[in-house]
Amino acid sequence: EAGVVQSPRYKIIEKKQPVAFWCNPISGHNTLYWYLQNLGQGPELLIRYENEEAVDDSQLPKDRFSAERLKGVDSTLKIQPAELGDSAVYLCASSLNSGGNGGELFFGEGSRLTVL
Amino acid sequence: RKEVEQDPGPFNVPEGATVAFNCTYSNSASQSFFWYRQDCRKEPKLLMSVYSSGNEDGRFTAQLNRASQYISLLIRDSKLSDSATYLCVVNRGAGNMLTFGGGTRLMVKP
Question: CA of B83 to nearest chain A CA: how many angstroms apart?
Answer without folding.
Answer: 15
